[in-house]
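Aim 2 progress update. The chain analyzed this quarter is reproduced below.
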Amino acid sequence: MSDPSRESDAEAKARRGRNIALALGLVLFVILIFVVTVVRLGGNVAERPF
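Predicted structure tokens:
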């Protein structure tokens, strides 16, 4: 007898694909925010006094 609450291989593969896509989108968003911040602060941000 099979357990109806157990997900199929196709459902598990689809869930994994969505998780990878979500993680990739999050990483790209963080990179975009970093690039925009660096551009707005300018190239001399490393030379600023504390």
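The mean pLDDT is 85. Helices lie at 9-41. These observations will guide the mutagenesis experiments scheduled for the next reporting period.
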